[in-house]
């Protein structure tokens, strides 16, 4: 099939898409956007989290045809508006030491973006719940929670 | 010793921006012109013979370029030290379930996978033996245990000392198979140019992969280049060449195109190694005043039919406590299972669970505080070898941790603290890990614009090595970190130690310090940097050979608080506290993260992680992240990590001990000891699952 959809604000088209392909496969192998990671392919680890029409999804669990005519936003499309190249969430992850091997990081950044968009000042319990679907094997999560808290505090500062 | 301007600071990870934006490229994400994909077909029996592979139907499918099997795959060369797991597709034998028996190569990944799923492989199965047991009839004493330690050691007369000891603890502990599960699945893309081979690979050391591929493909020195700029975790699973890299190179040779092979999460459980299950028999004897008179540690582990891998489980008992009569033994059995490999703190992680649990049992039996027991049995030299310690600050860690954790107010009685349906307890255990260095080479270049470039085949698997080495080089060069670029992950930079055994930073920093000092010396002599720059090279092989014989180890103390749900058997961990004496900590930020990460993996080891072997099919049945449970953020609460200011000038020029592994050593014992303190029940078999807790409480 021909897949027509929007990725990070740009119209895209892919031909000869097998309907069984995942959105993750389309992004990584067809669109050349490997920032969205493939670590389990069964929706357990959250490394492939992206927005599909503004809803956070595991791209590995979305069949490519489900993206037809819809808008996808990946980690590569997050910081396009910020001058320094990083948005406040990405900057918070860098500063707090929340990034180690980096393979879970894009998924966690997307999940944090989604959390703070809906819950600007989350409690720790809300952070843990929001990130419950994201596995990390390096960090022990503590610095990731620090990153989310820092990003939330800065977001509150700039958007009263 | 190096002046410390950058060292010790919490410099942000240099490549962090690339990682948070998705710009960092890992091995399976490097695009090479015209590349195709290989998908691995794994054996579905545990032992036997491949009698036929009918590739015709698969070859007829769209996009399929080739099906590599033992019939047509390129022949590999082997040397005496060749890892037999790498001799893929060389014969028709099946030695474990999940072994690679074919590689389907196609234009797209989906086509390759579809072909791999449909490939018709016929086997002649044989009876397999996959069940590990301490009374297995084929247990044997290996010639040595990993990497090259004596299998058995004995000082004094343990049996006589135990017979006359006032107090004896005699208990058997076990730890299950555990799977490393770095977040990035192993991947490689290989490209040939005549007899030159370039491989982008996910590994912990590019020169070791280069060496293996050079031998296997019978190539000239310098013909292979291995690159690994970003690596998504390893924990030992990428510590040496793994079959995916060989398969990619074979596929590329066969098809004359670049070939990418990425393992799936499920394939990793059989193909990249795991921590062996262990069974450990401990016998401790003490005087009435809690002075150890005897310590015996007998460890059993499994290996495969492919090669011998002998986990050094009892090593920890050779150095921890001053027992005048001390015996350690290792026995191994070769089963029809995938080959176990290194996983974070091989030896010490499972060994410390048994030793530090047994010490807790002894403290109870003697009626002394567990910290006091360790203080009373602190050795002045390494008990087994008699070697002096380069530094040993275990007691300082225990005391500092006791202060931070609030140990002094602890009521030693078990099973008496209850908050609603929760039982509450605390526990302590010691940590240790060897502090070794291995030969490495490095080059330091001064450029005419006043900046510096340092090249070393280090690997940053998430540790922060790139950042720490930049800090070290900057201090050595007396330059700000912004003017120093450290390039890593390219085997063309020359031989260097892998990121393993907590030896990476200790080994690489030595070579970098030496190269930088040499460069400064040269610069001092020539005055100004010539337009083309000036480079100094260093090799630490002779320096390391000339090191004095000492017992070099990092030490630590871990404290745990648990809450045990009496209705569900669930164990929660509100608090962990770790204090470490690990030489100089180069980067406070990345260092703390590594130690927290190690302790978190220790929570997994204690409570969650367990590879379950199916005796009928010879398979680790829970081979995915849905059924093999690693800690999630809800499992981790307050982890307090600190270190004591330790200066040890008998390690290496920078004074580094390494912190990659020690964080996981002792965590499981501290948690098990806390569960005992909470419930009054001793758990000697990991993980401490809810069903085990409920059974004990019933």
Report a brief summary of the structure.
Chain A is of the alpha+beta class and 160 residues long. Chain A has helices at 23-30, 88-96, 105-118, 124-130, 142-158, and strands at 3-7, 10-14, 49-52, 55-58, 71-73.
Features:
heterodimer, A: 160 residues, alpha+beta, Ubiquitin-like (UB roll), DNA polymerase, domain 1, 2 domains, five-stranded mixed beta sheet, 5 strands, 13% strand, globular, B: 698 residues, Aldehyde Oxidoreductase, domain 4, seven-stranded mixed beta sheet, 16 helices, 28 strands
Structural summary, described in words:
The complex is a heterodimer of chains A (160) and B (698). With 160 residues, chain A is an alpha+beta fold. Chain A has 2 domains: 3-78, Ubiquitin-like (UB roll), CATH 3.10.20; 88-158, [2Fe-2S]-binding domain (DNA polymerase, domain 1), CATH 1.10.150.120. Helices cover 34% and strands 13% of the residues of chain A. Chain A is built from 5 helices and 5 strands, in the order ββαβββαααα. Chain A has helices at 23-30, 88-96, 105-118, 124-130, 142-158; strands spanning 3-7, 10-14, 49-52, 55-58, 71-73. In chain A, strands 2-1-5-3-4 form a 5-stranded mixed beta sheet, sandwiched between helices. In chain A, a hairpin with a 2-residue loop joins strand 3 (49-52) and strand 4 (55-58). In chain A, helix 2 (88-96) runs antiparallel to helix 5 (142-158). The longest helix of chain A is centred in the C-terminal third of the chain and has 17 residues, at 142-158. The radius of gyration of chain A is 16 Å and the shape is globular. In chain B, helix 14 (588-607) crosses helix 15. The mean pLDDT of chain B is 97. Chain B has 3 domains: 16-25 and 438-545, Aldehyde Oxidoreductase, domain 4, CATH 3.30.365; 32-127 and 181-271, Aldehyde Oxidoreductase, domain 4 (2-Layer Sandwich); 144-178 and 275-435 and 550-697, Aldehyde oxidase/xanthine dehydrogenase, molybdopterin binding domain (Aldehyde Oxidoreductase, domain 4). With 698 residues, chain B is an alpha+beta fold. In chain B, 61% of the residues are buried. In chain B, 25% of the residues lie in helices and 25% in strands. The longest helix of chain B is centred in the C-terminal third of the chain and has 23 residues, at 504-526. Chain B is globular, with a radius of gyration of 26 Å. A 7-stranded mixed beta sheet of chain B has the order 3-5-1-14-11-12-13, sandwiched between helices. Chain B has a 5-stranded mixed beta sheet with strand order 9-17-16-15-10, sandwiched between helices. In chain B, strands 18-19-24-25-28 form a 5-stranded mixed beta sheet, sandwiched between helices. Chain B has 16 helices and 28 strands. The chains are: A alpha+beta (160), B alpha+beta (698). At the A-B interface, helix 1, helix 2, helix 3 and helix 5 of A face helix 1 and helix 14 of B.
């Amino acid at each position: 099939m021909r897949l027509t959809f929007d990725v990070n604000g740009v119209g895209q088209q892919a031909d000869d898409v097998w309907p069984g392909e995942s959105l993750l496969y389309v992004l990584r192998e067809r669109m050349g956007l490997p920032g969205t990671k493939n670590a389990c392919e069964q929706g357990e680890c959250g490394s492939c989290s992206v927005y599909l029409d503004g809803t956070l999804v595991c791209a590995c669990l979305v069949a490519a045809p489900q993206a037809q005519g819809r808008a996808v936003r990946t980690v590569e499309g997050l910081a396009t508006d910020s001058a320094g190249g990083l948005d406040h969430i990405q900057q918070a992850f860098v500063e707090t030491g929340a990034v180690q091997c980096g393979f879970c990081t894009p998924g966690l950044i997307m999940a944090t973006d989604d959390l703070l968009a809906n819950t600007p000042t989350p409690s720790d319990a809300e952070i843990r719940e929001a990130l419950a679907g994201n596995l990390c094997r390096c960090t022990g999560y503590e610095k990731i929670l620090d990153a989310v808290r820092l990003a939330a505090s800065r977001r509150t500062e700039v958007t009263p | 010793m190096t002046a410390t301007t950058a060292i010790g600071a919490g410099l942000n990870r240099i490549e962090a921006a690339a990682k948070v934006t998705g710009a960092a490229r890992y091995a399976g994400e490097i695009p090479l012109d015209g590349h195709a994909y290989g998908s691995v077909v794994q054996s579905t029996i545990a032992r036997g013979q491949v009698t036929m592979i009918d590739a015709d139907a698969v070859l007829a499918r769209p996009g399929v370029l080739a099906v590599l099997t033992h019939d047509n795959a390129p022949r590999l060369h082997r040397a005496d030290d060749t890892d037999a797991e790498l001799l893929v597709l060389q014969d028709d034998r099946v030695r474990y379930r999940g072994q690679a028996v074919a590689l389907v190569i196609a234009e797209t990944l989906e086509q390759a996978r579809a072909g791999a799923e449909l490939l018709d492989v016929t086997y002649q199965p044989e009876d397999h033996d996959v069940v590990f047991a301490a009374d297995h009839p084929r247990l044997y004493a290996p010639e040595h245990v990993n990497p090259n330690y004596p299998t058995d050691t004995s000082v004094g007369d343990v049996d006589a000392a135990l017979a006359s000891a006032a107090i004896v603890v005699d208990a058997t502990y076990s730890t299950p198979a555990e799977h490393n599960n770095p977040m990035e699945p192993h991947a490689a893309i290989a490209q040939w140019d005549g007899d030159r081979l370039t491989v982008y690979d996910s590994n912990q050391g590019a020169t070791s992969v280069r060496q293996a591929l050079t031998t296997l493909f019978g190539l000239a020195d310098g013909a292979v280049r291995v690159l690994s700029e970003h690596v998504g975790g390893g924990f030992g699973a990428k510590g040496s060449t793994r079959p995916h890299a060989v398969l990619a190179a074979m596929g590329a040779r066969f098809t004359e195109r670049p070939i990418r092979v990425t393992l799936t999460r499920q394939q990793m459980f059989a193909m990249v190694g795991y921590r062996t299950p262990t069974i450990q028999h401990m016998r401790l004897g003490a005087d009435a005043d809690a002075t150890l008179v005897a310590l015996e540690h007998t460890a059993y582990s499994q290996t495969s039919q492919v090669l011998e891998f002998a986990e050094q489980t009892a090593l920890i008992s050779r150095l921890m406590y001053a027992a005048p009569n001390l015996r350690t033994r290792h026995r191994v059995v070769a089963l029809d299972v995938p080959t176990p490999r290194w996983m974070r703190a091989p030896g010490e992680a499972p060994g410390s669970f048994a030793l530090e649990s047994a010490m807790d049992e002894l403290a109870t039996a003697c009626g002394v505080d567990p910290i006091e027991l360790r203080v009373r049995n602190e050795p002045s030299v390494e008990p087994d070898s008699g070697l002096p310690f380069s530094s040993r600050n275990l007691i300082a860690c225990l005391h500092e941790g006791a202060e931070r954790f609030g140990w002094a107010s602890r009521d030693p009685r078990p099973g008496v603290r209850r908050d609603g349906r929760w039982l509450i307890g605390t526990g302590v255990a010691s940590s240790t890990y060897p502090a070794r260095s291995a030969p490495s080479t490095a080059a330091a270049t001064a450029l005419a614009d006043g900046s510096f470039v340092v090249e070393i085949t280090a690997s940053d698997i998430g540790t922060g090595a790139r950042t720490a080495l930049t800090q070290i080089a900057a201090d050595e060069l007396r330059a700000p970190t912004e003017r120093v670029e450290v390039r890593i992950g390219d085997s063309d930079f020359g031989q260097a130690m892998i990121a393993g055994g907590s030896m990476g930073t200790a080994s690489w920093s030595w070579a970098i310090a030496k190269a930088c000092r040499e460069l400064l010396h040269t610069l001092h002599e020539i005055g100004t940097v010539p337009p083309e720059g000036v480079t100094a090279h260093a090799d630490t092989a002779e320096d390391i050979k000339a090191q004095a014989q000492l017992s070099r180890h990092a030490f630590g103390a871990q404290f745990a608080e648990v809450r045990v749900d009496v209705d569900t058997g669930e164990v929660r961990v509100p608090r962990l506290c770790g204090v470490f004496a690990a030489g100089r900590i180069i980067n406070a930020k990345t260092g703390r993260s590594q130690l927290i990460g190690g302790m978190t993996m220790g929570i997994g080891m204690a409570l969650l992680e367990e590879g379950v072997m199916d005796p009928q099919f010879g398979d680790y049945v829970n081979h995915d992240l849905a059924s093999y449970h690693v800690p999630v953020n809800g499992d981790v609460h307050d982890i307090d990590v600190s270190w004591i200011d330790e200066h040890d000038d008998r390690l290496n020029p920078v004074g580094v001990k390494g912190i990659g592994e020690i964080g996981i050593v002792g965590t499981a014992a501290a948690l098990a000891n806390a569960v005992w303190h909470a419930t009054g029940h001793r758990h000697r078999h990991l993980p401490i699952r809810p069903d085990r807790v409920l059974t004990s409480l019933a």
